[in-house]
Design a protein that fits this description.
about 675 residues; mainly alpha; Clc chloride channel; 5-stranded antiparallel β-sheet; 23 helices
Length: about 675
């Protein structure tokens, strides 16, 4: 009877309540940040046609938003600055007091302004701090002693992390690994953390949906012969983690040394730089979740990736240093993904025979940089697997994370949150302005390199458009899925093939609406109204002949005849490019058929010559207009839309070829 009386029912009930509230607040924070992302994209699209310079508007808005957020933090709750994780560590250690009544509103609103503006910050820092505040709130009414109070604060912090990334197991491990010096282990405290994380994920999943937060589909198991490459990748990522920690700590110290007026001026300058980057190179700002999903499939060139690493490294440390609410988990994951993609490009160049998917290295580097920076390898391993759903890559992820952690430790690096927690309250001496000027110059110099990161795909931009002296005697029609192919219209192309179209977005800037999942794989290409067939012109046709390829069973080019010169028609009829849906591209042409077979698209799949880029695209459908191609893309099954397909412009001189099975 006495044992039953000692059973901590009140602690478990409070933990479940804290977890549910953390999931609710985390889901709301996630939703408003998603709305801010869409708002930034819509504003940028609207400013394209505005009579005033769009970059100027974004610079002014960026400065106003960041100054407002900084004013809120300094005026009402200075402890809400930064991530909040080191603040939770100090609270559990008894060094600071958690005032939840002011932390909750300021962290939410100022965090929304900071992260939603496009700063390179993550949402997990605010949700962890708000979850801990909810634990403090519950402990004042439901915790009879100090031990249970600390258990509820830790449970709330873990629930906030679980809600941020839909990763309950990683959140549980994070408390036991990162907060191990300040967390009092007991059966009841661990159970309360687990209960709070489960409740948070249930509530947030009910609101936002279930599944991996950053899925990276279609990754195969890495061969054992490639494992030494992951050890090498871990060495490089470990060194990058030490550099990142040093730069982040230096940025925080520099901004702490500023007076109040200088701090507001610095926030305004950062806001103006942020606005310029949002206009010129949007991939260099923001938390980076979209980069994590798209980079393994887009295959940017090595120099672009290196420039993107440099710029995002600087924007991350600059964004965090100004003292606004925001985490570093998401920027770390994005930076690791970029580094892994760059390493993949290097491996593909030096050892093309390995034929490894770029996503393998990107996922492994994502966890490795987290492990090297936070010095929590187990959390990094589990977090990446839960985020991406890449269970088949568990062994490469483990090797890369361990190697990165060993490298960071051998180089004398320290965990980032220990460094931030150890910052002295005494202002640091001012830094030389030369370094700031140099950093700003590096950002501006690299913006040109990354400006066309999405606008120019390497496999599309570098394909030469060659003229042909042959003229097709007839134009064949091909049925791809249920969308018909026809020769392009004989009018000048009014579309801009180089326009920067975001994944899942139409030319008007509107996001694709969700569609039902597929019922049969063979129906991957949705029904689209077939375009009208334009009869082949008999007068003089320009030298760029338009050839189409018959289906695989009739793979023979159209018979060519010598051009017919007609003096009565002095002006040639211009041919218009047509469009196709590019699902993915591979370095090796032999990878096309296995992927198409797994998706049930082998009969519909088409490709183009790799050209100078060396990448082989997998295309489905051929459409006369971009609108028809976009309608077909938006109606693809859910798993194919998850690949973030793009609309590919097919030049008049290019010809689609069937994807042939090697068997």
């Amino acid at each position: 009877m006495s044992d039953r009386h000692r059973f901590p029912w009140s602690l478990y009930l409070a933990a479940a309540l804290v977890g549910g509230l953390a999931g609710l607040i985390g889901a709301a924070f996630h939703a408003v940040l998603d709305g801010a992302d869409q708002g930034r994209d819509a504003l940028r699209a609207a400013l394209d046609a505005a009579p005033i310079p769009g970059w100027l508007v974004l610079m002014v808005l960026g400065a106003l938003v960041l100054v407002t957020a900084l004013w809120m933090v300094r005026r009402f709750a200075p402890e809400t600055a930064g991530s909040g994780i080191q603040e939770v560590e100090a609270i559990l250690a008894g060094q600071r007091t958690l005032r939840w009544r002011r932390v909750l509103p300021v962290k939410f609103v100022a965090g929304f302004l900071a992260v939603g503006s496009g700063l390179v910050l993550g949402r997990e820092g605010p949700t962890v701090h708000m979850g801990a505040a909810l634990g403090q709130m519950a402990s004042e009414r439901m915790a009879p002693d100090d031990r249970q109070r600390r258990a509820l604060i830790a449970a709330g912090a873990a629930a906030g992390l679980a809600a941020a990334f839909n990763a309950p197991l990683a959140a549980i491990v994070f408390v036991t690994e990162e907060l191990r010096e300040h967390f009092e282990y007991s059966f009841a405290s661990i159970q309360s953390v687990i209960l709070a994380c489960c409740a948070a994920v249930v509530v947030s999943g009910w609101i936002l949906g279930q599944g991996p937060d950053l899925p990276v589909p279609n990754l195969d198991m890495a061969p054992l012969a490639a494992l030494p490459l992951f050890v090498l990748l871990g060495l490089l990522i470990g060194a990058l983690g030490v550099v990142f920690n040093g730069l982040l700590l230096g940025s925080a110290r520099s901004f702490r040394a500023l007076s109040t007026e200088q701090a507001y001026l610095s926030a305004a300058v950062v806001g103006m730089v942020l606005g310029a980057l949002l206009w010129l190179a949007p991939d260099t700002v923001g938390g980076g979740e979209a980069l994590v999903e798209s980079l393994p499939r887009e295959h940017p060139e090595l120099l672009i990736l290196i420039a993107l690493i440099a710029v995002r490294l600087l924007t991350t440390v600059g964004s965090y240093g100004i003292g606004l609410p925001g985490g570093i988990f998401a920027p770390l994951l994005a930076l690791g993904t970029i580094a892994g993609a760059a390493f993949s490009e290097l491996v593909a160049t030096l050892a093309p025979s390995l034929s490894l998917e770029p996503g393998i290295f990107a996922v492994a580097a994502m966890g490795a940089l987290f492990a090297a920076t936070v010095r929590a390898p187990l959390t990094g391993i589990i977090l990446v697997i839960e985020l991406t759903g890449a269970q088949v890559l568990a062994l490469p992820i483990i090797l890369t994370c361990l190697t990165a952690t060993f490298t960071a430790e051998a180089m004398g690096g320290r965990p980032i949150y220990s460094l931030l927690l150890g910052l002295s309250d005494r202002p640091a001496p001012p830094r030389s302005p030369v370094r700031r000027i140099l950093a700003a110059g590096m950002i501006l110099a690299a913006m040109v390199a990354v400006d066309r990161f999405h606008a120019v795909q390497p496999d599309e931009a570098s394909l030469p458009i060659q003229a042909s002296t042959d003229v097709s005697a007839s134009v064949q029609e091909e049925q791809v899925g249920s969308g018909a192919m026809s020769p392009p219209a004989s009018s000048t192309d009014a579309d801009n093939p180089g326009r920067n179209l975001r994944d899942g977005e139409s030319e008007t800037g509107e996001s694709s609406s969700p569609q039902p999942t597929k019922h049969a794989v063979a129906s991957a290409t949705p029904p689209v109204p077939p375009p009208a067939v334009i009869p082949a012109a008999r007068p003089v046709i320009p030298s760029e002949s338009i050839d189409t390829v018959a289906p695989a069973e009739h793979d023979s080019p159209a018979s060519a005849e010598s051009p017919i010169q007609t003096e009565s028609r002095p002006e040639p009829i211009a041919r218009k490019p047509h469009y196709s849906i590019q699902l993915i591209s591979f370095r090796r042409a032999s990878s096309l058929a296995p992927f198409a077979r797994r998706q049930g698209l082998l009969e519909q799949a088409r490709t183009l010559d790799a050209g100078a880029s060396g990448w082989h695209p997998l295309l489905i459908g051929e459409f006369e207009s971009r609108d028809a191609a976009e309608a077909a893309r938006d109606s693809l099954p859910a798993d194919l839309r998850g690949l973030k397909p793009i609309i590919r412009t097919i030049a008049p001189s290019e010809r689609l070829r069937p994807v042939r099975s090697p068997n």
